[in-house]
Amino acid sequence: MCGEEFKKLQNQVEGYNHLFKVLKLSQPLLQSPADFLPVVEAIKQQVPALKNGEAVVFMGHGTSNESQRVYSNLESFLKVNGVNGFIGTLKGEPGIQTVIKKLEEMQVKEVILMPLLLATGHHVKRDMIEDKADSWKNQLEIHGFKVQIYLQGLGENPKIQQRFLDLIFHCINQ
Q1: For the residues of 26-94, what is the DSSP string, one character each?
Q2: Which of 28, 61, 89, 93 qualifies as a FRET site for 127, CA 20 to 30 Å off?
Q3: pTM of this prediction?
Q4: If DSSP codes are grouped into helix, strand and coil, which group holds residue 142?
């Protein structure tokens, strides 16, 4: 999304424009409403069939700028397309406690905890699954949920990889 990190990257790229004949930066994965359906279709390939009382909890990074709304839009697209998924973020809202309240309201008993991140690095290890009281896994278990962990980042998903290639080729051909 066009969050804080993307804005920083834009500024860095602009700082090098004078060194190149042509220097382009592709749009992020989720920029316009048309971007959501291909991403949801890719995510659906990762999500196993869910039974009654089961849901997927996606952990995203979050941002402090206006792009935070992308998470709620993506969650809506997931639900409309048949995925009982809830998205929370490490930074901003909704956080894990908001997600837990939604799960309890929907009487969910089991969750699959998945990263909504390109790679399963620092945040996944520390914030999602580490054996510490405030990790998402432990927070969910403290609230009585049975938790399965899924450790594949979006960058490992072939359909997400293809989506990035499509965006790059579109950028090159503009």
Answers
A1: PPPSS-SGGGHHHHHHHHHTTSPPPPTTEEEEEEEEE-SSGGGHHHHHHHHHHHHTT--EEEEEEESSS
A2: 28
A3: 0.90
A4: helix
Give the start-to-end residue ranges of the domains of the chain.
Answer: 31-157
Helix 69-80 and helix 36-44: axis angle, to 10°? Answer: 60
| Distance (Å, whole) CA 119 – CA 174 | 29
- Three-class SS state of 147: strand
pLDDT in tens, 8-44: 999 999 999 999 999 999 999 998 888 999 999 999 9
CATH topology of domain 31-157: Rossmann fold (3.40.50)
**φ, ψ at 135 (rounded to 5°):** -65, 155
Are 90 and 61 in contact by the 8 Å Cβ rule? The answer is yes
Residues 168 and 61: their CA atoms lie apart, in Å, by 23
**Which amino acid type is present at position 111?**
V
Q: Which stretch of DSSP H or E encloses residue 101? A: helix 96-105
